[in-house]
Amino acid sequence: RGARSFAAKKSLALSVRTPPRRAMLPAIVIALGVFGSALSCVGYVRWRAAAMALLFVCGVSMVSCLALCNTSIQQRVPDQMRGRVLSMYTFSFYAFLPFGNLASGTLAEHLGIGTTFLLLGAALFVCAVLAGIAIRGRKRGRTMFGDVEIPNIEI
């Protein structure tokens, strides 16, 4: 009873407090990197308690990443366009989910579950690193493709 109430209080406190807008993208990248790292380790852990702990970390980081992405979109889109943009975001997220499940199932069938977890986690981690590089370059006025003038557009 005590642990559940503590967890509920902390999750409520964290859900009410969103990071500042300037810290939103780095928080998304960190959550994505943690998710990829933990997912890579899940396939090769043989101890049940360690696997459960890693799956817990995967779940927390995935939910954090998705919630922060949703919040970031809501903060950046004008009020009159918010419903349309979020419906397209939700549609694209859920529409491509079966294709990802099919691909990961095919990989698991041919390569094994451990290798599949490793590959998918590594792909997430690489995406997080590339996003981090892109964010750092954007702050400096550069992109991954060289020095490019980036207009400061407020949506």
Please tell me about this protein's structure:
This protein is mainly α and 155 residues long. 79% of the residues lie in helices and 3% in strands. It has six helices and two strands; from the N terminus they run H-H-H-H-H-H-E-E. Strands 1-2 form a two-stranded antiparallel sheet. Helix 2 packs antiparallel against helix 3 and helix 2 runs antiparallel to helix 6. The N and C termini lie far apart (46 Å). The relative contact order is 0.13. The model has no long low-confidence stretch (mean pLDDT 83).
List keywords for this structure.
globular; single chain; 155 residues
Quickly describe the structure:
This protein has helices spanning 2-16, 21-42, 48-76, 82-95, 97-111, 113-139, and strands spanning 142-143, 146-147. The protein is mainly alpha-helical and 155 residues long. The protein has a two-stranded antiparallel sheet with strand order 1-2.
Strand-residue proportion: under 5%
| Mean pLDDT score | 83
Could you estimate the helical fraction of the residues in percent?
Answer: over 70%
| Largest sheet strand order | 1-2
Gyration radius over CA: 18 Å
Give the end-to-end Cα distance, rounded to a whole number of Å. Answer: 46 Å
The largest pleated sheet is described as: 2 strands, antiparallel
* Unreliably modeled segments: none
Tell me, briefly, the overall form. Answer: globular
Count helical runs: 6
SSE series: HHHHHHEE
Category from helices, strands and their pairing: mainly alpha
Number of strands: 2
